[in-house]
Specification:
There is one protein chain. By secondary structure, the protein is an alpha/beta fold. The protein folds into 2 domains: 160 residues, NAD(P)-binding Rossmann-like Domain (Rossmann fold, 3-Layer(aba) Sandwich), CATH 3.40.50.720; 121 residues, Orthogonal Bundle (N-(1-d-carboxylethyl)-l-norvaline Dehydrogenase, domain 2). Helices cover 52% and strands 12% of the residues. 45% of the residues are buried. The C terminus is likely disordered. The protein binds NADP nicotinamide-adenine-dinucleotide phosphate.
Length: 306
């Protein structure tokens, strides 16, 4: 029998993920803090929930995709939180990127009420969420992973069970170390290309297809050339992940020099009020250091959003 699914958090990622769950034929109840964001899903056939507790009461599996650790805590354990409506046996799948240690604690608190939990952070950007091609890194018990698999398959392609509770979040932070390292390398490279006077489109075309190619370069490189700072992933949320990386790395005694550098560069952009822009807008921090502006000859001046 097809499980009744609930989805909480219809932001840049959640709206595409929820739509793909609906398309796969699951009866779906949705809730979003800002109610107007539910409208497109409701028009497509989802039921609107009153609050997270109501979503949990209507569902056997509840998927969350909200911003940060305190937000997950509020949605799960707040006044009208998931635990108020969940029954023993309800499965919570948290697709947000949050602290691995808090995840272990949340799973334990839910477990005391007979509610199961998987951490299942995702990678692949807004494009992957819309196209149902996300990579999903899952932590939790194998029986719960089996039960969740049809829902995962509606949202993603590479679904990897990486360990127990919290392991999915740890692997997601590994992913984020790679993402920000790729992003900084892309920004340095495009600045270098601009200063070297080569055709940026041709340069991108050449290097994207060789050993230096990456998701970041293919998806965000062209956006940089257009000076299109619309977010697939905002600087504010990227910085939240870098902060999680720095905290975990400190606890583990691991040097993360590139992530630390990126943290400080993003901080300068946040101070200039650019935290709502996409994470590829990192290049604007390097432009300020060098006084070189990447893009067309008529490129706008520093900090201007296209
Ligand atoms: P987003 O567009 O800012 O959406 C955030 C969502 O969380 C919104 O629905 C927001 O509700 C909801 N929310 C935040 N705080 C809440 C609270 N206290 N109570 C209830 N709802 C709350 O962010 P996003 O890009 O979709 O990212 C969501 C999660 O996925 C984050 O953990 C992010 O790190 C992760 N992620 C993002 C990407 C990406 O490329 N964008 C990729 C992989 C993973 P409102 O609409 O009311 O603000």
């Amino acid at each position: 029998m097809t499980a009744r699914v609930g989805f909480i958090g219809l932001g840049i990622m959640g709206r595409g993920m929820a739509r793909n769950i609906l398309r796969a034929g699951f009866p779906l109840t949705v809730w979003n803090r800002t109610p107007s964001r539910m409208d497109p899903l409701v028009q497509a056939g989802a039921q609107p929930g009153k609050d997270p507790a109501d979503v949990a009461a209507q569902s056997e599996i509840v998927v969350l995709c909200v911003s940060d650790t305190p937000d997950v805590e509020e949605v799960l354990f707040g006044a009208h939180g998931v635990v108020q409506g969940a029954r023993p046996g309800t499965l919570v799948i948290d697709c947000s990127t949050i602290s691995p240690q808090a995840t272990v604690a949340f799973a334990q608190r839910l477990g005391e009420r007979g509610v199961h939990m998987l951490d299942a952070p995702v990678s692949g950007g807004s494009e992957g969420a819309e196209q149902g091609t996300l990579s999903i890194m899952v932590g939790g018990d194998p029986e719960d992973v089996d039960r969740a698999m049809p829902v995962f398959q509606a949202m993603g392609k590479a679904i990897t069970h990486v360990g127990g509770h919290g392991a999915g979040q740890t692997v997601k932070l590994v992913n984020q170390i790679l993402v920000v390292g790729n992003c900084l390398a892309m920004c340095e490279a495009l600045l270098f290309a601009q200063a070297g006077g080569v055709d940026l489109e041709k340069c991108l075309q050449a290097v994207t297809q060789g050993a230096a190619g990456s998701w970041m370069l293919s998806h965000r490189g062209p956006q940089i050339l257009r000076r299109d700072w619309r977010p697939g992933f905002t600087i504010d949320l990227q910085q939240k992940d870098v902060r999680l990386v720095l905290g975990e790395a400190d606890a583990l005694g691991v040097p993360v020099m590139v992530s630390s550098l990126v943290f400080h560069l993003y901080r300068t952009l946040q101070r200039r009020g650019l935290g709502h822009q996409g994470n590829h807008a990192l290049i604007q921090a390097l432009e300020h250091l060098s006084d070189i502006v990447v893009g067309t000859e008529e490129a706008p001046s520093h900090g201007e959003a296209a």
